[in-house]
Amino acid sequence: MSEYSFKYGSTLCNFEIQSEDLLHILKPRYADPITDVQKKCIEALMNPIGTPPLERIINPGENVLLIVSDITRAWIRTNQFLIHIINYLNDLGISDQDISVLIALGTHRPSTEEEKQLIVGDEIYNRIAVYDHDCFDPEQLSYLGTSSAGTPIYIHKKVVAADRVILTGGIVFHLFAGFGGGAKGMVPGVAGLDTIQHNHRLTFYEGESAGLNPDACSNKIEGNPMRQDITEICRKVNPDFLFNAVLDAEGNFIEFVAGDFETAWLKGCNIIRQLYGVEVQQKADLIIASAGGYPKDINLYQSVKTMDNCIFGGKEDSVILLLAECRDGLGADEFLQWFQYDTLEKMEAALKQNFTVPGYAAYKAAYVAKYRKLILVSALEEKVVKKLGFIPVKSPEEALSLAYSLTGEHPKITLMPYGANTLPILI
């Protein structure tokens, strides 16, 4: 027997596993953190991928709009690199008065002034005009036609009116867009509600009860209908430059990529694959996973990403033992409301009528509950966990005993101690 530790909230849980039952231990690969953020930012800006340097793109007197991620993406640490981009623009002769920042809220709630200050940093907040995008306000939007997938293209007027547009963000695996970052700063970031909902419905096949399109998934770009639509729309808007960050599981900067919004982003996606995509030779009967402790398991909504990653590492009808404290409950207010629909088909129909990301996360949770047996160690009420279709337990010992009773005496086991960050890739 060997003992393995998993993060649970701010504590650790230990399991004893028979060595002969162990298939894989999946962990992110190590990469050296950036020690001089300013230096690396400037290097990226001066050596872009797929575009000329900014000094050959932007001219003094032009107005420049920077699109940044909202407070739900605070892990990107925009305030640590945005100041270096803006100071660099100043060096090129662009005054603070000609620079503005637009927060890419997508469908999220408005930012508070305190959140705006946290996002951009104290100095930039006091120097530069910072605005929120509002996808629900037609007065803020310009219509730019229709994509080949039939998506009506509504984009914030400030983006369309700006002389130069710079997208910023961070790159991670994404549940249905393949990867975060890149053109997602444009759609859903600064797009209208009709654009966002039509684009997000591409995660499902057309038609009643047609189900999820499996190509709209993590780690897939080519052939992913949602991502291809996002890219097409972004190319129509044609932002001038991109600056994206790649971070490790501890929140340290690993790399900055800059240049063309697609070409530079693809380099960042490949780095994410190398860091967090872990090859497996066999799917497991039992996956023991942690979301990675607090804050990654702060609520169930945040823990759905771990569930989705586990799907890729286990056989159909396998068992997932998930450690997710969920000290703040379910997370998004509307998450539980989606479970009024008692089948995936009914939930799908409702999502096609009114797509929301919390609704999609609820669908994914319900999908996991249908096709896997998920044992959840959490602080959630037992009745709530059962309503979600999961098996509630209160201790790791009880969870492991139950897992063995469901899988048999010697299941093939994969351990995912950083489940929110690691994606099993079958070879």
From TrEMBL:
Residue ranges of every copy of the Lactate racemase C-terminal domain listed in the record: 281-420
Ranges for the LarA-like N-terminal domain? 8-206
- Family matches, as Gene3D superfamilies: 3.40.50.11440, 3.90.226.30
**Where in this chain does the entry annotate a coiled-coil region?**
none
A molecular function (GO) term: lactate racemase activity
Q: Name one Pfam family in it.
A: Lar_N
Q: Which InterPro entries match?
A: LarA-like (IPR048068), LarA-like_C (IPR043166), LarA-like_N (IPR018657), LarA_C (IPR048520), Ni_dep_LarA (IPR047926)
Q: Which NCBIfam families match?
A: Ni_dep_LarA
What is the protein name given in its UniProt record? Uncharacterized protein
Q: What is the lineage of its organism?
A: Bacteria, Bacillati, Bacillota, Clostridia, Peptostreptococcales
